[in-house]
Design goal:
Main location: cytoplasm
CATH architecture of the largest domain: Roll
Strand order of the largest sheet: 1-4-5
Largest sheet: 3 strands, antiparallel
Mean pLDDT: 78
Number of domains: 2
Subunit structure: Homodimer.
Helix content: 55-70%
Structural class: alpha+beta
Shape: elongated
Family: Belongs to the GrpE family.
Number of strands: 6
InterPro entries: GrpE, GrpE_CC, GrpE_head
Organism: Shivajiella indica
CATH class of the largest domain: Mainly Beta
């Protein structure tokens, strides 16, 4: 193409753009005039106003209904969670009693005369543990030899590991940990190997 042909093409393109812009401007002016005339006509405006008002009220109703359903679902979930963990404080206060029972059993194992007392204490202890299990409290069991988990355990001390494979693992459990549902209500106090 020559320079003259390129210039003519550019001119024709710019003219087409100007024509398109003029058409767009005239179309918007026609639309604006149409909306002005419809809002001014009295017989259509009453019906349109009522229809618009009905549509707005329907929209508001649907939004309020949706908001209420979301609120109801959220409060229902919160209530279920509250009911599930409402007794957490009571359970935490009972756990030291279980610890005392366990210590008493260890101490009474050495005595020969306390066999009947020990048996009675074990019955009471097992009954208490069963009640707590029915309420959702579970003891963290079989921790010895497993890797230390900071989410469920509290390391109170570290000692040299007796074997190489026990490094970083639980060597002894000083105080059992407990969960209520999925939530840890007391961390297990453990001794880890270094």
């Amino acid at each position: 193409m020559t320079d003259k042909e390129i210039t003519k093409d550019e001119q024709s393109t710019s003219q087409e753009q100007e024509v398109n812009q003029e058409e767009i401007m005239s179309n918007t002016k026609v639309e604006e005039s149409k909306t002005e005339t419809t809002s001014e006509s009295p017989e259509l405006s009453k019906e349109e106003k009522l229809s618009q008002e009905v549509d707005e009220l329907k929209d508001k109703y649907l939004r309020l209904y949706s908001e209420f359903e979301n609120y109801r679902r959220r409060t229902s979930k919160e209530r279920i969670e509250l009911i599930r963990t409402a007794s957490e404080e009571l359970m935490k206060e009972i756990l030291p009693v279980i610890d005392d029972f366990e210590r008493a059993f260890k101490a009474s194992e050495k005595e020969e005369d306390g066999a009947k007392v020990r048996e009675g204490n074990q019955l009471v202890f097992h009954k208490l543990v069963k009640v707590l299990e029915n309420k959702g409290v579970k003891v963290m069991e079989n921790l010895i030899g497993k890797p230390f988990d900071a989410d469920t355990q509290e390391a109170i001390t570290q000692i040299p590991a007796p074997t190489e494979d026990l490094k970083g693992k639980v060597i002894d459990v000083v105080e059992n940990g407990y969960t209520l549902g999925d939530k840890v209500i007391r961390f297990a106090k453990v001794v880890t190997g270094a």
